[in-house]
Each structure stands twice: as C-alpha cells, then as structure tokens.
Amino acid sequence: MRFTIAALGRLKEGPDRAQLERYVDLLGGLGRSCGLGPLQIVELPEARGPTVAIRCRDESQRLLAASSSADHRILLDERGRTHSSERFAELIGRLRDGGTREIAFLIGGADGHGTEARATADDTLALSHFTLPHGLARIVLAEQLYRAVTILAGHPYHRA
C-alpha cells in the first residue's frame, strides 16, 4: 500500500527537508517487507486568491487532483481524531489488509481545508491538539508513518 502526503507550501532546503527525506527513505526501505510504501511527498503552491473562500476552494481542488489515485483520503485537521502510535499502526494495517492500494494524507494551507476536500475525505486526523507549522506537520506525519511500518513489521524502533 502506497502513501502520499499532499501538502500546500514547499519546505526549503535545510534541516527540515533533510529530516522529511530521512523518514521517506527509512519507510521505503523497511516498508517493502510488509507491503507498505513508498511514501511520496507532493508539494503544491499556496493559493493567492483575494478571499479565504476562493483560496480554500482552489487549494482543495489541487489537493484532490494530487491525490486522485488514492482510494483512501485522510484530511489533517486540528479537529480530527487523535490516535496513539499503536492505534495509528492498527489503522494502517487494517486498511492494507482490507485491500487499500493508496492512502493520501492532505495537509491544507494556512486558511484550512475547503468544503470540497472535507466532503471527499474518508477520515480526519489530528496529529496533536497543538497547531503545528505545516512543514513540521509533514515531518511528524512522515515519522508516524515510518513508526507505524516498524510496528507492523515487528522492528524495534518503537519501544512502547
């Protein structure tokens, strides 16, 4: 099962980009052994429309287009459900075992998600009750995806 993180905005070169790429690489290596991965990162430019509604609609359409091959979409939103790492791994495992071919995680822009993206999401996930910068949210999500793969593979990375 493949993973896509579709996000508004672009991470600059530097430590954040390196950390994100580290988890992408780690997941790709271990994930093959348990039918998970690769992880693809799709970065989209932020909308420049004159109103929040126009920006959200434009960004929703582009996020949905970037995730069109996914058969399961999860919106990242502060009002979404939170999971422990173990529960998140269980969710990933259930989707994989149920025949899901690709999960797309959608990270909206500064104005949040538009109604079109919300209406087509299969689930809504909150990484934290804190509001996170969008770049950091990508890194946290990539690490949690890698952690889920290690849990499902029986790898010792997760020591809970």
Structural features, described:
The chain has 160 residues and is of the alpha/beta class. It has a single domain, classed as 3-Layer(aba) Sandwich (Alpha/beta knot), CATH 3.40.1280.10. It is 44% helix and 20% strand. The protein is built from 5 helices and 5 strands; from the N terminus they run E-H-E-H-E-H-E-H-E-H. The chain has a 5-stranded parallel sheet, with helices on both faces. Helix 1 packs parallel to helix 5 and helix 3 packs across helix 5. The longest helix is centred in the last third of the chain and has 20 residues. The radius of gyration is 15 Å and the shape is globular.
Features:
160 residues, 5 helices, Alpha/beta knot, alpha/beta
Concise synopsis of the structure shown:
The chain has 160 residues and is of the alpha/beta class. It has 5 helices and 5 strands, in the order E-H-E-H-E-H-E-H-E-H.
CATH topology: Alpha/beta knot
Unreliable stretches: none
Give the overall average pLDDT. Answer: 95
Largest sheet: 5 strands, parallel
The secondary structure category is alpha/beta
Number of helices: 5
What characteristic shape results from the CA principal axes? Answer: globular
Number of strands: 5
CATH class placement = Alpha Beta
Strand-residue proportion: 15-25%
CATH architecture: 3-Layer(aba) Sandwich
Helix content: 40-55%
What Rg is obtained from the alpha carbons, in whole angstroms?
15 Å
CATH homologous superfamily (4th level) name = SPOUT methyltransferase, trefoil knot domain
In what order do the strands lie side by side in the largest sheet? 2-1-4-3-5
Distance between the termini: 25 Å
What is the element string, with H for helices and E for strands?
Answer: EHEHEHEHEH
